[in-house]
Design a protein that fits this description.
It is built from 28 helices and 20 strands. The chain has a 7-stranded parallel β-sheet with strand order 1-5-7-8-9-10-11. It has a 5-stranded parallel β-sheet with strand order 16-17-18-19-20. β19, α26 and β20 form a beta-alpha-beta unit. The longest helix is centred in the C-terminal third of the chain and has 23 residues. The protein is globular.
Length: 774
Amino acid sequence: MTTKSAAAAAGATVHGYPRQGPNRELKKAIEGYWKGRVDAGALRATAAGLRRANWQQLTAAGITEVPTGDFSFYDHVLDTTVMVGAVPARHRAAVAADALDGYFAMARGTQDVPPLEMTKWFDTNYHYLVPELGPDTVFTADPAQQVGALREALALGHTARPVLVGPVTYLLLAKPAPGVAADFQPLTLLDRLLPVYAEVLAALRAAGADWVQLDEPALVQDRTPAELNAAARAYRELGALPDRPKLLIASYFGRLGEALPVLAKAPVEGLALDFTEAGAGNLEDLAAVGGLPGKRLVAGTVNGRNIWVNDLEKSLATLGTLLGLADRVDVSSSCSLLHVPLDAAAERDIDPQIVRWLAFARQKTAEIATLAKGLTAGTAAVAGELSANRAALASRATSPITHDPAVRARAAAVTETDGRRSQAYPERAAAQRAHLGLPLLPTTTIGSFPQTGELRVARADLRAGRIDTAGYEARIEAEIEEVVSFQEKTGLDVLVHGEPERNDMVQYFAEQLTGYLATQHGWVQSYGTRYVRPPVLAGDISRPEPMTVRWTSYAQSLTAKPVKGMLTGPVTMLAWSFVRDDQPLGDTARQVALALRDEVDDLEAAGTSVIQVDEPALRETLPLRAADRAGYLAWATGAFRLTTSGVRPDTQIHTHMCYAEFGDVVQAIDDLDADVISLEAARSHMQVARELAAHGYPREAGPGVWDIHSPRVPGAGEAAGLLRTGLEAIPAERLWVNPDCGLKTRGWPETRASLENLVAAAREVRAGLTGDHA
């Protein structure tokens, strides 16, 4: 299949690479720095070593152009904020005093200064720090980090391409700064920002950059004509710069649609597009606009977001078609490999026959190199790789792991009635008030308490055989006793058992459900130094036995107050796993919902009166295009209701969501028909409470009053102030008091102080409402 167009040799590249290192060296170094055990020089040396190792691995795998600028101490959007000088006023003194400490202060806050808001990066589980901008924002170029990384790579002999967040996406991701009118549009600052990008591009060119990639994933979303015109103007101006590298505009996570002709006509030298299933339609759209004559096309044919092996022959066919649509076609991942683990070969506990179905970052780079070789030299040059790939795909398709007739029969038998509570909310609420006897403004937490070093050691000891199951369970019981005792002394109203037995809110359940595979080294960055190991959803799902009843019941035996049963909901079980790609997501969600429904029923039968089914991923999994959302929300909310609708009216169903834009899914939140929802609200100053009120949300809600992703301890007065703001939108009889999220990542000292302040705030505000100052 070699053609004249391919004869120049297709290049192989990626948009970005996992940052953490094979043993999460970056996480350990950063957290050591925060605790004073690692100095700034040692932290920077660790980072430089990881960058060097990444580039070397990529080049050795056959990647011909490595990315720079994708590495970050915390978040690449925060890095962009530094690059363009958009540091919030409250953090400028800290940044001026020490750039590194100021950087982390923007990410995490300090005791006196709150951090930037954090939310999900498009429809992924990665979190970015939201830029805060206003009419008075002054941008100034600071390309030191980007120039430094480029020089490092070039000095090592690599062909390198800096990767930056594009100016349009940066502004579209931003929010009005505190004190700025809510209707302020950051995109109005584009003309002020473009000269700063021009300075950065000139600095990178001077440092040796031949190409620079500007990422514009926001353009795969629905965009107004004004926003598309802004994108056209941005690249018309940047393209006209006399002193710049060649520009590659990249977009991913979906189909560009109406933005594709805008970018295709821009005076830039190349585009990078997603040609995986997520970007279905980009190929046809590209052909419709006449292709990219005289330009470079970086074709994302290897999925950067999931972990299944690529269908190499199918990708080669796509690439062959693309050869006629651009002057040069290079092969790439669909997006940054930041979203997948590092190396499937490290998974020694997974059946080797199944491991060959998997492609983590290192395997994906090999696939990209194979595709580039096949595109250049023809399929005969990669015959061995194609044969092995066909065998892996056939093995997966015919495996009994992927098909369980009993599970499929049960899912097929589900009726609409199975997804409806037996009584409407007003009748349920009355029954729950009588049954639970809670005060006005009841207090609770989201579920998890600090995961101490002792708990991690206990799990490691159990895995290594240093303690037996009885010894491990005794340690877990002791931790539950401490958590329950603390909550009772503090005065919380609805307690939790603290989840000491859980390694992760998804993995814990995945390890007990059939059809899931758990990894040992499959770490993926969620935010900052928070890494998770998403399980692999490989086959049909069922629950062999109860998963949480033993620990919830034990906690309930220690107190007369209600203890919440805690489960992870079906949408989040999918969103925070690597899902199967061989059947519709809605079908998989129904299977997971039925397994969780069994758990809910068993919790209720064991005497649990409050059951929380967390769905923090409901918003993040929302399709980026409005036209695709109704179908998703139908199966997503239906799966939640299928999980929860089998309980009695007096059993209170809670759910929880955090760190997302909730305004887009308020109707879906309503459609869940949960009795109580708790949501992140502290960083956004109770915005979600106002959104619920504007919608007319009729049930109970707990907008958080403590931002748990910052180490600072909010005072009782601060929490009370947020509560009073919440009361402006939600009536007291329907308002709960809780943190933003679970406390797994926090330490015990700050947890104790913050929860004591939270309870004090609730009592203060409650007394103001009732006159009861007891």
